[in-house]
Amino acid sequence: MKTIAALITVHNRREKTLQCLRNLFSQNLPDGYTLDVFLTDDGCTDGTGDAVKKQFPEVNIIHGSGNLFWNRGMYLAWKNAAQKKDYDFYLWLNDDTFLITDAISKLLHTSEDKINKAIIVGTTCAFNDDKKLTYGGRIKNGEIVFAEKEPVLCNYFNGNIVLIPREVYQKAGTNNPVFRHALGDFDYGLRASALGIESFVSPGISGQCDEHDKLAAWCNPNQPFKKRWKSFRSPAGQNPEEFFIFGKRHYGLYQACFHYFTNYLRVFCPGLWKNKSQL
């Protein structure tokens, strides 16, 4: 039997989390595969953990401090899974992402096509528009790439639906907990690429997930400065120190410094970017 460990981190999205798990456990897995789920309950206060325990007692629940956020929650789930068993595959899954019935089967098929030596990324679309791509594999300019019938290479990826074979994990390890919320997924793809590991987008749509607001509060000129600053400094916002680490690691010191200072400028003068976009 080949084994899959699904990794999820959650915080106060009970109904979405439960629906995510329903779709996950409804997957048509190929013969010879088993699925275990490792879920980090990062300080939920809405009863998510209890509801999961009641409806899905087979889920391995790991309790977080409430300050892990997405990336560190995923790191904790991954470490727990790897300590329990030497899994053949690790599946990243966001709790606001609902898999289609044969998503994992297609991801596994794509992985087998690449001899289980590559990262396989699933593409998501909006709930009310299956033509609108929301998350998945991306190329250097940040554009989401879509695979029609054959797998397509990407440079990095969103962490909504990602299949990581054992051999990739043995080379690249887990996501890096230096990042709290964002950047851990982008960083993993770029680190893997530097190690000679390719990332491929699996054909078709793997799940549904609506896109978050493109214009974040920290750079929105319609938001008051106090709210922009709070968002800028928060783990779920721009967190400039972590973005500096990311930028220096993958694009060099000059680019890291440039974006560090321009991001601060954008907090104070977001209208400059708005006016520039209107030219």
Describe this structure in words.
This protein has 10 helices and 14 strands. The protein is globular, with a radius of gyration of 19 Å. It starts with a strand and ends with a helix. By secondary structure, the protein is of the alpha/beta class. Strand 1, helix 1 and strand 2 (33-41) form a beta-alpha-beta unit. The protein has helices spanning 14-25, 48-55, 69-84, 103-113, 166-172, 184-194, 225-233, 240-251, 253-268, 271-277, and strands at residues 2-10, 33-41, 60-63, 89-93, 98-99, 119-121, 124-126, 129-135, 137-138, 152-154, 156-157, 161-165, 199-201, 207-208. Strands 3-2-1-4-12-6-13-10 form an 8-stranded mixed sheet. Strands 5-14-7-8 form a 4-stranded mixed sheet. Helix 1 (14-25) packs parallel to helix 2 (48-55) and helix 8 (240-251) runs antiparallel to helix 9. The chain folds into 2 domains: 2-208, Spore Coat Polysaccharide Biosynthesis Protein SpsA, Chain A (Alpha-Beta Complex), CATH 3.90.550.10; 217-277, no CATH class.
